[in-house]
């Protein structure tokens, strides 16, 4: 095997990824040149305060007829509530972390999202959601609803949600965090550990 086969100075291949970005007032659609294929990675690895989209379309929720086309547009990342990619790729090998799925709802006006989030093995869902360092949280198999603008409702295979803009987060299985150990321990050890924490029977 040739240890020098890989060129450390080679330029990573860029791909054109089609994105829909939603703010509180606007939907901006266009393509971005990126080394990543997962929507959350595209946003979390973005450099600078704005994301540049090419061949863009801008529409305003309050006036859907006022659609504007632009060759290039810059969207402030701090104002992006959620982002959907036309296709969702796989994580790069060096970015894969063992995680488990958790059902969740996220309220970020004017949107409400229902779907699945992925948290680190052995952690409580709330800890995995609130303690992560990435700005954008990945959510899969998502249903998006908008009471103010029902026409914005849709489903998506994957969505990137800006964590700090989420006003309410609900998780489905955070009431029995001890049981999560069964997923990282062998069955016998997990049962013994749980049994030791059960209160003694009343005499």
The number of helical segments is 3
Instruction: Give the domain tally.
Output: 1
Helix content: 10-25%
Oligomer: single chain
Structural class: mainly beta
Alpha carbon gyration radius: 21 Å
**How much β-strand is present in the residues?**
35-45%
Based on DSSP secondary structure assignment, what is the total number of beta strands? Answer: 10
Spatial order of the strands forming the largest sheet: 4-3-2-1-5-9-8-7-6-10
Low-confidence stretches are: 1-6, 175-186
Which shape, going by the Cα principal axes? globular
Mean pLDDT: 79
Distance between the termini: 69 Å
Largest sheet: 10 strands, antiparallel
One letter per element, helices H and strands E, the order comes to EEHEEEEEHEEEH
What can you see in these coordinates?
The chain has a 10-stranded antiparallel sheet with strand order 4-3-2-1-5-9-8-7-6-10. The protein is globular and about 45 Å long. It has helices at 39-44, 125-130, 187-197, and strands at residues 15-22, 26-34, 50-60, 63-76, 82-85, 99-108, 111-120, 136-145, 154-162, 168-171. It has 3 helices and 10 strands; from the N terminus they run ββαβββββαβββα. Helices cover 11% and strands 44% of the residues. Strand 6 and strand 7 form a beta hairpin. The termini are far apart. It has one domain. With 203 residues, it is mainly β. The longest helix is centred in the last third of the chain and has 11 residues, at 187-197.
Question: What layout of secondary structure does this protein have?
Answer:
Elements: E1 15-22, E2 26-34, H1 39-44, E3 50-60, E4 63-76, E5 82-85, E6 99-108, E7 111-120, H2 125-130, E8 136-145, E9 154-162, E10 168-171, H3 187-197
Antiparallel strand pairs: 1-2, 1-5, 2-3, 3-4, 5-9, 6-7, 6-10, 7-8, 8-9
């Amino acid at each position: 095997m040739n240890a020098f086969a890989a060129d450390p100075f080679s330029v990573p291949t860029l791909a054109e990824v089609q994105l829909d970005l939603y703010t509180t007032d606007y939907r901006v659609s266009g393509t971005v040149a990126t080394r990543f294929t997962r929507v959350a990675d595209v946003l979390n690895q973005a450099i600078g305060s704005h994301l540049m989209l090419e061949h863009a379309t801008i529409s305003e929720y309050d006036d859907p007829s006022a659609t504007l086309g632009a060759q290039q547009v810059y969207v402030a990342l701090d104002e992006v509530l959620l982002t959907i990619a036309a296709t969702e790729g796989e994580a790069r090998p060096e970015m894969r972390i063992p995680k488990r799925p958790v059902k969740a709802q996220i309220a970020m006006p004017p949107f409400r999202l229902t779907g699945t989030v992925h948290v680190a093995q052995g952690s409580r869902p709330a800890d995995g959601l609130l303690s992560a360092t990435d700005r954008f949280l990945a959510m899969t198999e998502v249903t998006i609803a908008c009471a103010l603008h029902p026409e914005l409702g849709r489903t998506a295979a994957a969505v990137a949600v800006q964590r700090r803009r989420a006003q309410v987060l609900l998780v489905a299985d955070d009431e029995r965090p001890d049981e999560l150990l069964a997923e990282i321990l062998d069955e016998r050890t997990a049962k013994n550990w749980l049994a030791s924490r059960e209160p003694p029977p009343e005499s």
